[in-house]
Design a protein that fits this description.
The relative contact order is 0.19. This protein folds into two domains: 305 residues, 3-Layer(bba) Sandwich (FAD/NAD(P)-binding domain), CATH 3.50.50; 162 residues, Cholesterol Oxidase, domain 2, CATH 3.30.410. The strands form three sheets. Strands 1, 2, 5, 6, 7, 8 and 16 form a seven-stranded mixed sheet that branches. The chain has eleven helices and 16 strands. With 528 residues, it is α/β, with parallel strands linked by helices.
Length: 528
């Protein structure tokens, strides 16, 4: 009797990476089931939730937080044991965590992928930039990325770089007043600004309206101009994918010949379902994917699953400008200072990306002044004065893979279905700390050259770019997947996640994960 399969491919996770993977496979005629732990929620409901929430700084709050599918901010869901509290803004619903991202969609540089070779630290990627470049372009088309084709994104002020086979699908949006103010002050002093590629297109694209500058990319774009994974989840369904929501995967079943034979999931009612397929793709959040592999005892002959956790752990600097700039008008981010994205210094300290943040500061300033006891006229005057001149530089640092920084299933807490929650251990390494020391000196110069007034610099903060937990490499002894994102241990099990990235660089990794997923989809489609 012929073996019965429920689908050619099962994809676990309906975020931006998983949904693009599922859609590519469906377009190539493959039968696909996509599992999502959370529900499907319409945008109008999320907007209503946000407007009614008293916790405007909690970007998870408008989203579902079910006992069987918690967000990362649920009490006891993430237990931290390291010196740094790693608490990313993870969501569980159709579309995943890209419901509340800033939308930055960078390519890595060739040197980012040769960190060990070039600078003697960290790891090299097992593939070259040239191998990934065609898939970067396909991903940019799918997402509708808006960017500049003329800038040197290495930040060195040269000609257009890195190499591109085709232009961005959408040109850059007009400059914000805030952006123009920074550039007018700093470019003449040698600061190299680069336009941030993003998926908040300023013209209609693929059924999405043009961005209207609502400044509410997080927690939820009110008009749907900002791309999120639900767009490709819905596309994939139209192309034939079977999407099963509220399906919490908890076991990956191994069979003979090292192959995976089934995925097991639980419903909110506790029912167990087993699904068989020819190929399997784990595309949940970096934390959840690693946890699922560990719970299932798969893909871990190297003992590297969950290890090598990297984030663009950063700091923020606040200062007052010498004239009104009214931060908070238009998109939440548009440009950054990139002089320290690449260079020989990376052998000594992390790369540094300074983003000029454009989030409206008024709520935070109001809370600050109220906590200081201000009332009445004094409160009003300070809110206005600081709001019109407040500026923030948000800085990312490049982490190195360290096996001691890791995510594991919790041994003390379980969710409503009896599945262990998460335990995370993360320490900020000396490579980042040396980068932070350099950045703080750069802050002094930025404030001086802006003729500004320094206010404060924060301690280290999360930036939710969680790489390395299922790290990519050539050697099965020290990595989880190969350059195709196929697990070394199981020929029919692939990972689609930023968690495979072996060298973090200093730019947002989501576009790269989607490009890798499209590449893997082509490989799977050829093999089935």
């Amino acid at each position: 009797m012929a073996k019965q399969f429920d689908a050619d491919v099962i994809v676990v996770g309906s975020g931006a990476v998983g949904s693009n993977m599922a859609n590519e496979l469906a377009k190539q005629g493959k039968s696909v089931i996509m599992l999502e732990a959370g529900p499907k929620v319409e945008r109008w409901k999320l907007i209503e939730n946000f407007r009614n929430s008293p916790r405007k700084f909690d970007f998870n709050d408008p989203f579902p937080n079910n006992p069987w599918a918690n967000t990362s901010y649920a009490k006891n869901y993430i237990e931290n044991t390291g010196s740094f509290e790693m608490l990313p803004g993870m969501l569980k619903l159709v579309g995943g965590t890209t419901w509340h991202w800033g939308g930055a969609t960078w390519r890595y540089l060739p040197n980012d992928m040769k960190l060990k070779t070039m600078y003697g630290v960290g790891r090299d990627w097992p593939l070259e930039y040239s191998e990934l470049e065609p898939y970067y372009h396909r991903a940019e088309i799918e997402l509708g990325v808006s960017g500049s084709d003329t800038e040197d994104q290495s930040g060195q002020g040269g000609s257009a770089f890195p190499p591109r086979s085709a232009p961005y699908p959408v040109d850059p949006e007009p400059p914000l007043y805030l952006t123009t103010h920074f550039k007018n002050k700093l470019e003449k002093k040698g600061y190299n600004f680069v336009h941030e590629p993003n998926i908040r297109t300023h013209v209609p694209y693929d059924g999405r309206p043009a961005c209207q500058g609502n400044n509410n990319c997080a927690p939820v774009c009110p008009i749907g101009a900002l791309y999120n994974g639900s767009i490709h989840a819905e596309k994939s369904v139209r192309n034939g994918v079977k999407l099963i929501t509220e399906a919490v995967a908890y076991n990956i079943e191994k069979g003979p010949d090292r192959k995976i034979v089934a995925i097991h999931y639980k419903t909110p009612h506790g029912d167990d379902v087993r699904l068989q397929a020819k190929y399997f793709v784990i595309a949940a959040h970096s934390f959840e994917s690693a946890k699922l592999l560990l719970l299932s005892d798969v893909a871990n002959s190297s003992d590297q699953v969950g290890r090598n956790l990297m984030d663009h752990t950063g700091i923020n600097m606040h200062f007052l400008t010498d004239e009104p700039v009214w931060m908070g008008r238009g998109p939440v981010q548009q440009t950054g200072i990139f002089n320290w994205r690449d260079g020989a210094f990376r052998s000594e300290h992390s790369a540094i990306k300074h983003t000029i943040t454009n989030l409206n500061p008024t709520l935070g300033l109001t809370q600050r002044f109220l906590s200081q006891g201000m009332m009445g006229k004094e409160l009003d005057e300070n809110i206005r004065h600081y709001s019109e001149r407040w500026a923030e530089v948000s800085t990312f640092f490049e982490a190195l893979p360290d096996p001691n920084n890791r995510v594991m299933p919790s041994t003390t807490h379980k969710d409503a279905l009896g599945i262990p929650t998460l335990k995370v251990h993360y320490d900020v390494d000396d490579y980042i700390k040396r980068g932070a020391a350099a950045a703080k000196e750069q802050y002094k110069n930025i404030v001086r050259d802006m003729n500004g007034t320094y206010i404060e610099t924060t301690d280290f903060v999360n930036h939710d770019h969680l790489m390395g937990t299922m790290i990519m490499g050539n050697d099965p002894k020290d990595s989880v997947v190969d350059k195709d994102c196929r697990t070394h241990d199981h020929p029919n099990l692939f990972i689609a996640s930023v968690g495979v990235i072996p060298a973090a660089g200093v730019v947002n990794p989501t576009l790269t994960a989607i490009a890798l997923a499209i590449r893997s989809a082509d490989i799977i489609a050829r093999e089935i």
